[in-house]
Amino acid sequence: MVRLRGGLPHRSVRSAVDVAELRDRARRRLPRPVFGYLDGGAGDEVATRRNREAFAGVRLVSRVLRDVSVVDTSVDMLGRRADSPLILGPVGLTRVFHPEGEAAVARVAAAHGIPAALSTMASTSPEAVAQAAPTLDRWFQLYLWRDRDAARAIIERARRAGFRVLVLTVDVPVAGERLRDVRAGLQFPPSVPLRTAVGFARHPRWVWRVLTTEPIGFATGGAPRSDFVAQTNALLDPAVTFRDLEWLRGLWDGPIVVKGVLSPEDAVALRAHGVDGLVVSNHGGRQLEGAIAPIEALPAIRRAVGPEMFVAVDGGIRTGAHVAAALALGADAALIGRAYLYGLAAGGEAGVDHALGIVEAGLRRTLALLGAASPAEVTPEMVRVEERLRVPSAGPVGTRPDAGYVTR
Prior knowledge:
Blueprint: H1 11-14, H2 19-29, H3 32-39, H4 46-53, E1 58-60, E2 75-77, E3 80-82, E4 86-88, H5 101-112, E5 116-118, H6 126-132, E6 138-142, H7 148-160, E7 165-169, H8 179-184, E8 187-188, H9 197-201, H10 204-212, E9 226-227, H11 228-235, H12 243-249, E10 256-261, H13 264-272, E11 277-280, H14 294-305, E12 310-313, H15 320-328, E13 333-336, H16 338-370, E14 383-385
Parallel strand pairs: 4-13, 5-6, 6-7, 7-10, 10-11, 11-12, 12-13
Antiparallel strand pairs: 1-14, 2-3, 8-9
């Protein structure tokens, strides 16, 4: 565990042995609408559950009598060495989970020697993140706004703040239907609707932090407070096409990665348009209801683009074994989102560190058990995938997937 500002995590966080236990602690510490924003998905949340449960259909095949006395997890990521094949993925408004927010995430990533991606919808500015973590390999996630002058200004701010990689998210032409947020009346930036005020009052520590720290809002600007669907549809441009990649390349001379790819045909087209990498992703199951799990889509995309292109994957990754499976199925790296956010909500910066430590330790252990002394030694022969992965049920008709907030 890396020692960070604020010291060791609180005992209740330190005692968590896996990400699922951190999730339980986050659920107890956050008001129900805020936890729903973190934990929920689109519609009936089948896609979110499928992201996790698809890993149940992946079987690892170990090789024996290999020297794994030293396991080196370091990899190259678009021209810079990282200490492990992990990226802390972009999430908007993380200060709603804990006031340390994106700055804490950045410091943890820098301490662990891996990249972190800052969201366009972040509650901490690019400049503040650069100041908080000057040694971080900084990636900036971009949504293309209807207002291209505003988009150009955001890109320039990220460039001046030393962000190295631009991650263009392309799977939000319109907002997905996130029913947990709708039922809770959650607005963005967050407010406390009268009908949920009692629920917020049950979490006085969270309320105190919100009231005594800098107001939570979009650090790069945005639309006035409104519900998620209205705000997303007002800001983002549904007319974005492959032609916009040329415009973007004229503004950014570093690596460009496109996030939100599920189709091999799209992956090939993006390679032809000169992008430097892809993230196979369904937005954590928060956009298209019923979307294929990224880990299911990954092998075909890797075959389509060949071995040279940088390909990462996200969605449902909670353990080091999941990361190893992603490597065997063709990924160069894995992004985690909810996994570290559960730690942030449970214990601030130290909680993020603990969550990442759990995943990293699991990866080193899994590589050793597979007979691989490095990610480069993980091969397709070390994985088997069921022909028909188990598809989670949405439950009986009329069952709400968020009832009790106990889905895992």
